[in-house]
Amino acid sequence: MGTPEFPDLGRHCSVGDCHQIDFLPFTCDRCEYVFCLQHRSYTSHKCPVANNKDVTVVICPLCAKGVRLNPNEDANITWEAHVNTDCDPSNYQRATKKKKCPVPRCKEALTFSNTIRCKDCSKEHCLKHRFGPDHMCPGPRKLEPTFPFANMLRRSQKVEPRANSSSSSSSWWSSSLLNAASSFRSSAEAGMQKLSIATSEVVQKAKDGITPISSSGDLVEQCVQCPARFSTVGALIEHAEKSHGNSSQPSRGRVTIDACPKCSKGFQDPVLLVEHVEREHGGTSRA
Predict the structure, then answer these.
(1) What is the pLDDT of residue 157?
(2) Residue 23, Cα to own-chain centre: how many angstroms?
(3) Torsion over CA of 195, 199, 202 and 205, rounded to 10 degrees?
């Protein structure tokens, strides 16, 4: 069997009386045996499992639905299961009733191949009445206005038929909307401006090292050029050198503060420092 170049070429037919070698054999998809051209069909080689993959569908006379029969199950059992669970007699009219052309005195049934939907009236017609004049097409449907108060405007026009009623109503609505939008925008801009000013002040104070005034009386040293207060003379001197050291005002020169060696209280005038030492510390400046 085969040739020296193709030793596996060709196979024998599985039918005992035939056993013919075929170089283009057929394999049965049910029994998976190999057959020749003459015995390739199910009936010719008497396939024992030919009905295992058969699909049989029965149309139910009650609901017009298709019921698939299982080859491994009795047909009566399959039928009873369909009737008890899936059968709906009301579907029979919908399934069996055929659509017809809506044109009067036209009995043409509408199928897949002869149905045309009109673009203007959105109705289905047969090929004979597919044009608008043939089926008396009323034309495209007018869209209803989407404005929610259109019905109220119509009623007011019927009660008081005035020429300018609709224009005045629309202008009143537009002016009200514009006023509300402008007021909301102005309030939002004012709030954002206040927030930006407060933020810039806080950031500037943080950069300058300014401490807010305390009501407890701990901050006793006050800057002579700004309302900032500090608890120690060292913090006041650092603030003065950092914030007011390069001041461009000619009348105010560089600030010089003398500290008391006993209580660390600062004085701009040395005379005041001496008087403070004599009055508070008994005339001695030793720490």
Answers:
(1) 56
(2) 63
(3) -120
The larger pLDDT score, comparing residue 141 to residue 22, is at 22
Q: What is the pLDDT of residues 24-74, one digit of tens each?
A: 899 998 899 999 999 999 889 999 888 777 788 888 888 888 888 887 788
Dist CA 211 CA 227 (whole Å)? 10
Which residues contact residue 45 at a Cβ distance below 8 angstroms, ignoring those fewer than 6 apart?
14, 15, 28, 33, 35, 39
- The whole-model pTM stands at 0.28
Give 150's pLDDT tier (boundaries 50, 70, 90): low
Contact status, residue 27 vs residue 18, Cβ threshold 8 Å:
no
H or E element at residue 274: helix 270-280
Taking only the tens place, the pLDDT of each residue in 232-274 is 767 777 787 777 765 444 444 455 677 777 787 777 777 787 7
H-assigned helices in 160-222 = 165-208
**Average pLDDT in the 5-21 region?**
85
- 10 in Cβ contact with 1 (< 8 Å): yes
Distances (CA, A) of 65 to 54, 81, 96, 106, 206: 19, 13, 10, 29, 83
Radius of gyration of the chain (CA): 52
Query: What are the DSSP calls for 236-265, one per residue?
Result: HHHHHHHHSTT---SSS-----EEPTTT--
Say if residues 38 and 32 touch (Cβ distance below 8 Å): no
Cβ contacts of 41-49, under 8 Å, gap ≥ 24: 45/14, 45/15
Task: Please give the torsion angle defined by the CA atoms of residues 57, 61, 64 and 70, in that order, rounded to the nearest 10 degrees.
Answer: -20
Please give the single-letter amino acid code of residue 149.
F
